[in-house]
Amino acid sequence: MGHSRGHPRRADHPPAELREGRVVQHHGATVIVEDTDGGLFNCNIRKRVGRVVCGDRVRWQPTAEGQGVVVELLPRHGLLTRPDPRGGARPLAANIDQIFVVCAPEPPLSEALIDRYLVAAELAGCAALILVNKSDLLDAAAREALRERLAEFEAIGYPLLFVNSRSAEGLAPLRAHTPGRTSILVGQSGVGKSSLVNALLPDQAVRVGALSAASGLGRHTTSDTTLYHLPDGGDLIDSPGVRDFHLWHIDRSELARGFREFTPFLGQCRFHNCRHINEPGCAIEQAVESGRISPRRLQSYRQIYAQLEEAETRF
Question: Is the pLDDT of residue 21 over 80?
Fold first, then answer.
């Protein structure tokens, strides 16, 4: 009875049920998956699943105590990629909701670099906020000068937050935006991203210990991309690779969509394939002339476009 469909199942080995979880650390061949109860499991990845990265949501099956196998990648959004050596795109972190672009009074602020991070955020479908870190070093006049310099970003809808990692008050503007979201911090070297991460994560050492134990590697390397839970809710994905990306590998034809204030004018140019580089009847150029787009932002777009063009010829 009941055995007519092949061999009977052994009672002590029922098939492992599929579970859902989130990848919270990536170790190349294996990943650490956190289940819905907060348990950590060291998982291999089935070949057909493809490349899995930190932040991914997956379906997985337990295989042994503390271990499992990832069998399916669930739909993702907010995917950050970086160029691979062959000119393709390699995913780095997934399901990012927002990017904090960190700058500071020192090293000297670069609007062109901020533009690049904002392009990456727009094309990945992430919200972006600009953080001026080390703001406790600014007197009122210097703070006002910096606010004025960054006003063009605020004018097109990017929140501007002055923060510092030395006090709870200094972190409050940043913390107000993290609950319920997965965030990353990016910016050039020396702007204090590490000190912000450390201040946001008082239990970082505990988390790292638990992840090291789960991986069985007994160590945590600073290059591991790791998802941390923030005390006020929300998550932070962190690693040097995530913090220090420049412009991800993108198609030149996509670039204009990365400048959000260009959007109302796209498709309005005389030529449907207008590159917005000195073509006649360019709606973006006309918007600059009428004061609706900043001339500096158009110049920045053209510089990035030229760099992407040059990069394409190398592959």
Answer: yes
